[in-house]
């Protein structure tokens, strides 16, 4: 027969208390291990972000995958994985990780904008627009000119030039020094036959991003349409000179030589 212990505890109660104590210690240990893994994952993630900043996308992806093996519930890590896969020209995998980021953090608007960008890469314009429209509804989003600019480009590709112009102008109103918005506006004006306005927009884009070869290439196109062959030639030559992409350089040189014969 179990006797009463001092303080009113019986043997069975002590055993029960010990079980609770051990269970609590195991839970605390498990929680501690989880925190350690999250900290280690964060360290790999931050290293990957540093590699991303240096344009070393393969190495960044390696670090992000290490982080994911330790802790895959980090929405910022999933967004980074999406960006790395997008940089590696794999929009399908990028979409998977951007969607994971949004599932983990429903108000993660930058990931929503990035998801739309991945759909742009796949030329799935309507799905991209759906993402950008949702992103622009977040009044707390610090960079709404990103989805507005992207939406303008999507409408440009859909040949809805009025909407392309409108959203590009909305982006410029928010961020006047954002060159991509001016570039997209120039493309939309050019496609709509508004050549003088296209030149103004593209020249503004070039002033804001003087090392962006695609802007000069498009300036070459619009100057040719206007019959300004000398300016067209100079713009194509500038594009060829500043790009580090062989294909673009070759195309720009070929266009420059073609325009030279028109002068």
Task: Give the SSE layout.
Elements: H1 11-53, H2 57-70, H3 75-87, H4 91-104, H5 109-121, H6 125-136, H7 145-157, H8 161-174, H9 179-191, H10 195-208, H11 213-225, H12 229-242, H13 246-260
Helix pairs in contact: 1-2, 2-3, 3-4, 3-5, 4-5, 5-6, 5-7, 6-7, 7-8, 7-9, 8-9, 9-10, 10-11, 11-12, 11-13, 12-13
Oligomeric form:
single chain
Q: How many whole angstroms does the radius of gyration measure?
A: 28 Å
Q: SSE order in H/E notation? A: HHHHHHHHHHHHH
- Total count of helical runs of at least 4 residues: 13
CATH topology of one domain: Serine Threonine Protein Phosphatase 5, Tetratricopeptide repeat
Gap between N and C termini, in Å? 113 Å
* Helix content range: over 70%
The overall pLDDT average reads: 91
CATH superfamily of one domain: Tetratricopeptide repeat domain
Kindly name the structural category: mainly alpha
CATH class of one domain: Mainly Alpha
How is this structure best described in words?
The relative contact order is 0.05. Residues 1-11 have low confidence and may be disordered. This protein has a domain at 47-138: Tetratricopeptide repeat domain (Serine Threonine Protein Phosphatase 5, Tetratricopeptide repeat), CATH 1.25.40. It starts with 10 loop residues before the first helix and ends with a helix. With 263 residues, the chain is mainly alpha-helical. Helices cover 78% and strands 0% of the residues. The protein has helices at 11-53, 57-70, 75-87, 91-104, 109-121, 125-136, 145-157, 161-174, 179-191, 195-208, 213-225, 229-242, 246-260.
